[in-house]
């Protein structure tokens, strides 16, 4: 339903328009009328219409002046100007004001109906476009949220090369920033299993927290991972001390809002500003600060005493090695790296920061499994619960080895299965269509993988590249035709997938040591 306001100093004109609209349109309703320019402006201030039909000559403020004032309030109303005068100047002013139509009095019924029908069609189309844009925006917001999470996962997986591309998507111009990590829901060790259940409920604060961050700064917010959220904040590094003070103040104001709204307690560790290529250092600094808050709610890495253990940095290199071993699908290498890591800590259960970091690695391993085609049937929350319920270091280590090695094995099997399928499918295509024009791009497109990846994978599995395999199949076909048919060399050339007999002859001689005609005579 569209609302129409009619402004004219003659009541008979208003009544005529209302009569026409009521009888001709089911989707237009006259909601207000006015007999002066001032009254018209006041009515529009109280209620915004979709369409306004106004006379020019009215007492006091005329119709054109009223339109100018109304457009300051609502610029996208559809205007129909009418006048008893067919003056060019009036029509020109109406056009300049963006009027949809200029009608002369007495208004022709058919002309008015035609004009209103056209305007409602325009409004229908505008609404359709608006709804479409809104739907697109909602989809884009969801997609950007997923991309934000992927950006944070890229940090955890040490994929520095992705950062620039992500920042471009989020319209972040500067090449420097810092990481802060927020944790929530502190509980004693014996209550950790309950805390895991609570972590699902704690998702409720996430949207509010994310919106507060976005409102105040250019940032990328990761998902809730167990009991923490990782955030990247874009900021220039002109003055490190100023950055430290501003970062603490900025995060403190947001944390206070969230604590007040959701009655939750948080701890925050903040890293220094670094260039994008070194942003992982800021992540490790934030982790280190978080693990040594010592009763403080929010702490910056520069505020930590110099003699504090450097646990976060010590684990960093080993974590990267482990992540690469998991992604490679090498359970034996995972076991070796985990054993080395365990050897550095006598009592994992007594070091909450270390234990939580190992649990975080299981989350990363699960993510890697999904990315590498492992079906999402791993009992994710189940084994996290088991890890959290461990009461001894030995039990924790054994379970961690079991879970991470198991994920690595599944990734390995998934890769083997995928590679086997791709190679088998490629060979089938080669054997069935060798007589046709067939390129690396053709097969890659059909297998839905990039030509570069397919070429590397095929050579790795088959020992020869795609062209070599295709040529070998074609040469075997040519020899078979020479032995079992009386076809000419030219015909055999075409039936073997080549369009140039001279090229075919040179290639055949290269592979067999003799020309096709000599081979044919010998057999």
Concise description?
The protein has 523 residues and is an alpha/beta fold.
Secondary-structure map with pairings?
Elements: E1 2-7, H1 11-24, E2 28-34, H2 37-46, E3 51-55, H3 63-73, E4 78-83, H4 88-96, E5 101-104, H5 109-156, H6 163-169, E6 176-184, H7 192-201, H8 204-216, E7 219-225, E8 228-234, H9 240-262, E9 266-270, E10 274-275, H10 279-290, E11 298-300, H11 311-328, H12 331-343, H13 352-371, H14 380-388, H15 393-433, H16 440-447, H17 451-462, H18 466-484, H19 489-495, H20 501-512, H21 516-522
Parallel strand pairs: 1-2, 1-3, 3-4, 4-5, 9-11
Antiparallel strand pairs: 6-8, 6-9, 6-10, 7-8
List keywords for this structure.
523 residues, alpha/beta, Alpha-Beta Plaits, six-stranded mixed β-sheet, five-stranded parallel β-sheet, 21 helices, 11 strands, 12% strand
- Helix-residue proportion: 55-70%
Q: What is the number of helical segments per DSSP (H or I, 4+ residues)?
A: 21
Helix-strand category? alpha/beta
CATH class of the largest domain: Alpha Beta
How many E-type strands? 11
Distance between the termini: 87 Å
Shape descriptor reads flat
Q: In the CATH classification, which architecture of the largest domain applies?
A: 2-Layer Sandwich
Radius of gyration of CA atoms, rounded to a whole number: 36 Å
Whole-number count of domains:
4
In percent, how much strand structure appears in the residues? 5-15%
Biggest sheet statistics:
6 strands, mixed
**Unreliable runs:** 187-200, 306-312
CATH topology of the largest domain: Alpha-Beta Plaits
CATH homologous superfamily assignment of the largest domain: Reverse transcriptase/Diguanylate cyclase domain
Mean pLDDT value: 82
